[in-house]
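Before going further, learn to read the protein records used in this course. Taken together, the tokens spell out the fold as the letters spell out the chain. A record is reproduced here so that you can trace the correspondence yourselves:

***
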Amino acid sequence: MIIANNLYKEYILKRGILKKKYDKKIAVNDVSLNIKKGSIVGLLGVNGAGKTTTIKMLTTMLSPTHGSILIDEVNAIDKHMEAKKKINLITGGERNIYWRLSAKENLNYFGSLYGLSKIDLNNQVEKVLKIVDLEDVKDIPVEKYSKGMKQRLQIARGLINNPDYLFMDEPTLGLDIMITKSIHEYIKKLAHEENKGILITTHYIHEAEDICDYIYVIDHGRIIAEGTSEQIKELYTHKQVYNIKTTELEENQINAIQRIYDGKAEVKLANDMDGLNIKADNLDFNEIMEVLNINNIKIESIGKSEFTLEDALYEMLEGVS
């Protein structure tokens, strides 16, 4: 298990040329998290929340200002070379692979950096190519690969030293929905069949909800919530969202509803522009109907939505900001 406690990272920023000034920037503030083998842990947050700094500390690329990191009881700060043998990092995008080389040549090169014997390296290359379904194209130059194939090769590269733990920094960044779905299947396979402990950083809420067994939400360098997606959503079970589809809706009617619920509920025009979404604590259905009727809003249908992880995250971040 990886156990990180009270991670804190600050930078000193220098400003000015003649008269220098120094500012302190806190990137990560008191972050604690655990990663178990066989599980997928999500670190979810908006850009600039502290995800990448956290993952750099966990992978020994960056030393924390203070805090502790144990990787299977190895102190990753004091014994980072020993800790590196147990981990690997996979990034999103097409960096860190050589396009003119084949998949097999790439993996042989990266495997040689870990000092694997020729026999062990050959066996590991064949094994990881099989895991990511690149066996049949292993001798083709990477420049001829699709985006999805390149990302699967990134995963294979991360597995070349047979790590117990994988860190994936935005692994589906820029990929289309079908490629993303296939990458998700490989990630789940690695955790649940290969018993790898995986930490994935993402700002895609649905990605965290779909594949993560446990989620940490980070904002302004702090963990503001943690739990399964269901546990995080349960923090807001009192919230209700009504979706009202109308036959006609004029701007003055929308403004009237917003004035009535000002400070009590959030009233927004629906995404398809043909109705309203009303969200608040413990909404009274009969009251909503009465308000709509008074304002001569013709209702085509009305439904109640389940509060999603995206809704919960939005509420959470609004409360922090």
Observations:
- The mean pLDDT is 86.
- The chain has three domains: 1-69+163-232, 87-161, 239-320.
- The radius of gyration is 24 Å.
